[in-house]
From TrEMBL:
Pfam families in the cross-refs: TfoX_N
Source domain of life: Bacteria
InterPro entries: TfoX_N (IPR007076)
Domain TfoX N-terminal: 13-73
Protein name: TfoX/Sxy family protein
Species of origin: Hominiventricola filiformis
SUPFAM superfamilies the record matches: YgaC/TfoX-N like
Amino acid sequence: MASTKEYLDFVMEQLSGLDELSSRAMMGEYILYYRGKVFGGIYDDRLLVKPVPVAVKMMPDAGMEPPYDGAKEMILVDNVDDQQFLCELVESMWEELPEKKNIH
């Protein structure tokens, strides 16, 4: 099942307190970027984020789920209704995210 544009719009609205936030559609899903780095995505209308240490620490009880078959597991963000938490989560993760790969 692909993600809906409505769910993407909802999550982007929840994160509207952050600058330099963007998304890119990819195979029916959405990759999410903050300040040029991928922090997660929307897969089957679920917000999943990379399992960097600070994200694990901020959501110790969160489940891990693969975004699609065969992929590395990511953290399922259940608390998408808490705008302040979401913004703090993404901002906190930025330092620990890998640098953007240059594709030549």
